[in-house]
Design a protein that fits this description.
By secondary structure, the protein is α/β, with parallel strands linked by helices. 37% of the residues lie in helices and 18% in strands. It has one domain (2-146): Rossmann fold (3-Layer(aba) Sandwich), CATH 3.40.50. The chain has helices at 19-22, 27-39, 53-68, 87-96, 134-146, and strands at 2-7, 44-49, 72-78, 100-104, 126-129. A five-stranded parallel β-sheet has the order 2-1-3-4-5, sandwiched between helices. The longest helix is centred in the middle third of the chain and has 16 residues, at 53-68. Bound molecules: 1,3,4-trihydroxy-5-OXO-cyclohexanecarboxylic acid (DQA).
Length: 152
C-alpha cells in the first residue's frame, strides 16, 4: 500500500524560500522524512510536487482511483497558495472521494488575512497547520492510524 504526498506551487524552493517562515529543510529532506515514517507502517510514498494546478488535480484523481482499488490510503497535501484560490482543487478532492490531510508548514492564521481562508479545509479529513515540515510526517501517521495500521 502507499500514500501520496503532494506539494503545490513554490514548494520546490523549500529550504531557500523565506526560511524564517518555512525553515531550512529542503523538499528532498521532507521526502526522506516521509519515506522513513511511512516505512514504519509498511507503506510506500508517492512523493510529488508541481507548480501547475492541473497537474495537482490529475494527481488527486489518480489517488482517488488508487484508494478505490485498495492500493492507497490517500493524500498528504500541501496545496501552497492554491489553498486560498482553488475551487478546482476543492472540487477534485470532493469528486475523487479521496481522504486528504491538508498540511501547511507555517501557521497561516498568524499571517496575512488572505491566507486565513482555505478552499481545501472543508473537503479535508484533517488539517495540520504551523508545525513545520513535521506536519507531513504527522499527516502520514494520521492516514495510517485512520486505517488502523499498527507500526511494524
Ligand atoms: C503554505 C502556506 C501558503 O499560504 C503559502 O502560499 C505556501 C505554503 C505552507 O506550507 O505554510 O506556499 O501552504
Amino acid at each position: 500500500k502507499k500514500i501520496m504526498v503532494l506539494n503545490g506551487p513554490n514548494l520546490n524552493l523549500l529550504g531557500t524560500r523565506e526560511p524564517a517562515q518555512y525553515g531550512y529543510e529542503t523538499l528532498a529532506d521532507v521526502e526522506v522524512m516521509c519515506r522513513s515514517m511511512a516505512a514504519q507502517y509498511g507503506l510506500e510514498v508517492d512523493f510529488r510536487q508541481s507548480n501547475h494546478e492541473g497537474d495537482l488535480i490529475d494527481a488527486i484523481h489518480q489517488s482517488g482511483k488508487e484508494v478505490a482499488a485498495g492500493e492507497s490510503l490517500g493524500v498528504v497535501f500541501n496545496p501552497g497558495a492554491y489553498t486560498h484560490t482553488s475551487i478546482a482543487l476543492h472540487d477534485a478532492i470532493k469528486g475523487a472521494d479521496v481522504p486528504v490531510i491538508e498540511v501547511h508548514i507555517s501557521n497561516v492564521h498568524a499571517r496575512e488575512a488572505f491566507r486565513h481562508h482555505s478552499y481545501i479545509s472543508p473537503v479535508a479529513s484533517g488539517i495540520l497547520v504551523g508545525l513545520g515540515v513535521q506536519g507531513y510526517v504527522l499527516g502520514i501517521q494520521a492516514l495510517a492510524h485512520k486505517r488502523g495500521l499498527a507500526k511494524l
